[in-house]
Amino acid sequence: MKPKVCPYCSEAFIPSRYHPEQTICSSPECQRRRRSEYHRKRIAEDPSYRKLCAESQTYWKEKNPDYAKRRRAKKKSTGSPSESTIDELLRLLRQVKNNSAKNNMAVAVTRCCVEVIWANGPGGSPEGNNLANAKLIVIQGDAPVVG
User: Fold this and answer.
1) Contacts of 108 (CB under 8 A, 6+ apart)
2) 6-20, 49-63, 113-127: which has the minimum mean pLDDT?
3) CA–CA separation, 85 vs 79, rounded Å?
4) How far, in whole angstroms, is CA 103 from its chain's centroid?
5) 66, 89, 97, 107: which has the fewest C-beta neighbours closer than 10 Å?
């Protein structure tokens, strides 16, 4: 097949053999532009499509009334630890505690904004425990009795 030139990125591409009339290359950026141009053109020309889009937005807003409030709260919570961060930390600690019997070295949990390193006590091997970047360190073992 003869190569074509994409009107958006000016790169040569070979059209799909299943769609030889393809005029836009397959890059995600060019496809995004193609879809948004089609959408804009269709809204300008087709009143029923315009009405459908407006109704769709209204329907979504009715189904998600507190979306803006949640989004603003999420943006604000980056400064200090919020209740959800503390709840997430407690959930991760429970997960690490439940899995500690399976892994006697160290378990690093990094699925949220905190990092938890679980390190073994005196009976464990310290070579596997990297505590340099930990924000919270939980040490398993018997605490020495002071006093």
Assistant:
1) 115, 116, 117
2) 113-127
3) 11
4) 27
5) 66
Q: What is the 3-state secondary structure (H, E, C) of 63-90?
A: HCCCHHHHHHHHHHCCCCCCHHHHHHHH
Nearest to 87 by CA among 106, 125, 60, 114: 114
Domain boundaries, the chain: 4-65, 83-139
3-state secondary structure (DSSP) of residue 65: coil
pLDDT over 80 at 108, yes or no = no
- The bridge status of strand 4-5 relative to strand 12-13 is antiparallel
Gyration radius from the chain CA atoms: 28
CB 105 within 8 A of CB 120: yes
**What is the number of helices (H) and of strands (E) in the chain?**
4, 5
State the chain's maximal CA–CA distance in angstroms.
Answer: 86
145: left (phi over 0), alpha (psi -120 to 50) or beta: beta
Contact 141, 120 (CB under 8 A): yes
Residue 111 pLDDT level (bands cut at 50, 70, 90): very low
Report d(CA 15, CA 104) in Å as an integer: 55
